[in-house]
């Protein structure tokens, strides 16, 4: 009987003291992970000038989303570009706008989202080191099942 009274008093005490709960802010960047990383290569026998990364988010119950980046190993490139695209499970194609910048070492595409849980993401990357050099490219890829 004493135990029952103690439990009732404890329950009543807990109910009279409000408990404050704060929702944690979700940082979308935390859920993206690199799923493909490739060096850029050209027709010439030169060392790679940089690389492309494809980042995909398959967090919880959301449809997958992705973005791509292109980056030089060092220094600024004459021109650098990136684009990401998706083919969803229903055969729909979507793509970010191709972004090109000059005199920089890093570029990031917009984020695109698949309309279905299963899809394929493609990243397209290119670097032109100088105004009279060739262009090095690479493609990144991830299939989401």
Structure keywords:
48% strand; five-stranded antiparallel sheet; mainly beta; 145 residues
Describe the structure.
With 145 residues, this protein is mainly β. The chain has 1 helix and 10 strands; from the N terminus they run αββββββββββ. The strands form 2 sheets. Strands 1, 2, 3, 7 and 8 form a 5-stranded antiparallel beta sheet that branches. Strands 4, 5, 6, 9 and 10 form a 5-stranded antiparallel beta sheet that branches. The termini are far apart.
Which class of secondary structure composition applies to the elements? mainly beta
Largest sheet: 5 strands, antiparallel
Mean pLDDT: 83
Helix content: 10-25%
Net shape:
elongated
Concise structural overview:
10% of the residues lie in helices and 48% in strands. Strands 1, 2, 3, 7 and 8 form a five-stranded antiparallel β-sheet that branches. Strands 4, 5, 6, 9 and 10 form a five-stranded antiparallel β-sheet that branches.
Would you spell out the secondary-structure blueprint of this structure?
Layout: H1 2-16, E1 33-39, E2 50-57, E3 65-72, E4 77-88, E5 93-95, E6 99-104, E7 106-108, E8 112-113, E9 119-128, E10 135-144
Antiparallel strand pairs: 1-2, 2-3, 3-7, 3-8, 4-5, 4-6, 4-9, 9-10
């Amino acid at each position: 009987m004493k135990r029952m009274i103690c439990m009732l008093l404890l329950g009543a005490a807990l109910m009279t003291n409000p408990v404050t709960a704060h929702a944690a802010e979700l940082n979308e960047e935390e859920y993206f992970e690199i799923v493909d990383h490739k060096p850029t290569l050209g027709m010439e026998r030169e060392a790679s000038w940089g690389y492309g990364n494809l980042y995909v988010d398959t967090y919880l119950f959301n449809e997958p989303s992705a973005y791509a980046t292109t980056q030089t190993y060092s220094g600024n490139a004459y021109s650098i570009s990136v684009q990401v695209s998706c083919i969803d499970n229903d055969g729909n194609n979507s793509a970010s706008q191709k972004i090109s910048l000059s005199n920089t070492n890093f570029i990031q595409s917009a984020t695109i989202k698949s309309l279905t849980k299963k899809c394929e993401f493609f990243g397209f990357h290119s670097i032109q080191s100088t105004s009279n050099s060739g262009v090095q490219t690479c493609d990144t890829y991830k299939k989401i099942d």
